[in-house]
Amino acid sequence: MKAETLREEPPTILTFAARDGRLLATGSPERGRRPALSDGPGRDLMNDALIRRGSTSGVTETAIQAVVALCLDDLLTGDWDEALQLAGAGLEMCDRHGYQELRWPLWVVSGVIAALRGQDEQAGDLADRLADWASRRGSATVRLYALYVQSLMAQAQDDFEQAFRCLSELAVPATFADHLPLAMAASVDFVDCALRTGRREAARAYVTLLRTADPAVLSPRMNLLTACATALAHPHETDHFQRSLSVPGIKDLRYDRARVQLAYAERLRRSGSVRAARGHSGEARATFLELRAQPWQARADRQLRATGTVRIGAAETHAEALTPQERAIADLAASGLTDKQIGMRLYLSHRTVSAHLRRVYDKLQISNRTALRDALGADRRPSDPFARAGGPGATGAHEVAAAG
């Protein structure tokens, strides 16, 4: 069989570092600097429109690229269930309309989420697909992403030696420069694994490479991660963690922020600041619980126990742990409304309502809406969040829809 034409750079470029810190763009580097997609109803309508378009024969490469962008945005902001739904829809579009070259970024998104959730079999399968794709096409970029997914799997199993080996190529200066977005996105992973395997000089050398990046092109996410990596590699420079968590624009970077908080908590505990360590560990654990990132939740649990915390997780299972939007959706679901009906009231798509309810179930430790009424208890609010404001047109309706 004749070998496929080898291409060093695939047609799609996965960028883990948008300027606004949220949207992960696809396409050329120039195209990657467009504004982030909007939140709320407009974004939900875009999701639905793209998926509907994928059901017709007129689907284009641009539509698939837009689905990829939405997936990547969800990966960063912690809407992982929606990201997986979109990835599935995008892969179906690629298969149906012959855009096989555009599948790999969707595999990356799905693989990263599976690895962070400790779903080893699924993550391994996706890493293998990426590695095979890269081998057949001679793509160094996609091969590195396959190794990145494998490194996340190894970290979930506390196999830091294997994780370091997967990331080691990124420490080569030429590779670092040629794959800067991934090299910076993996900075905390590389430095943490290097330190846990006794390679302090390798960790510091990597931080030196990070400092060669042009500050003008760094997103809030990259600033957060590089500051954390620097703090890990240089423990006596005490201000880097505080600086990383004060970077503007990182509030929505839920996993990354929790990862930094957990690293900071370990540093605080080792320096004797147990109360502060407990606070950061608890916040990180709550985020990992919400994301269903079980390996990281387990790591946060160990950190909390090291601070002397005996009872772990009680606050997260209480109804007060729900965000305002989650609480509004939970109340409506407990009153008997369907996802579609809830979406109409709160100006959300039924897919977004479903994703929020899954997070509600996780926080309340229940499995379905039948148990919602008891889980919410006597504190359950009126089923219609607009009732006390005088009806659907009253002031505050959009505030309820936008909260959380």
* Regions with little confidence, pLDDT below 50 for 5+ residues: 1-13, 17-42, 54-58, 382-404
Structural class: mainly alpha
How do the SSEs run, as a string of H and E? HHHHHHHHHHHHHHHHHHHHH
- The CATH class of the domain at 1-157 is identified as Mainly Alpha
End-to-end Cα distance, whole Å, is 55 Å
Give the overall pLDDT as a whole number.
Answer: 78
Q: What name is given to the CATH topology of the domain at 1-157? A: Serine Threonine Protein Phosphatase 5, Tetratricopeptide repeat
Number of alpha- plus pi-helical segments: 21
The count of β-strands is 0
| Biggest beta-sheet profile | none
Which CATH-level-2 architecture of the domain at 1-157? Alpha Horseshoe
Helix content, binned percent: 55-70%
Q: Rg to the nearest angstrom?
A: 22 Å
Q: What's the overall geometry?
A: globular
What amount of the residues lies in strands? under 5%
Describe the structure.
By secondary structure, the protein is mainly α. Among the domains are: 1-157, Serine Threonine Protein Phosphatase 5, Tetratricopeptide repeat (Alpha Horseshoe); 318-402, Arc Repressor Mutant, subunit A (Orthogonal Bundle). The protein contains 21 helices and no strands. Helix 4 (104-116) runs antiparallel to helix 5, helix 6 runs antiparallel to helix 7 and helix 15 (274-291) runs antiparallel to helix 16 (294-306). It is globular and about 60 Å long. The model is unreliable at 1-13, 17-42, 54-58 and 382-404 (pLDDT under 50).
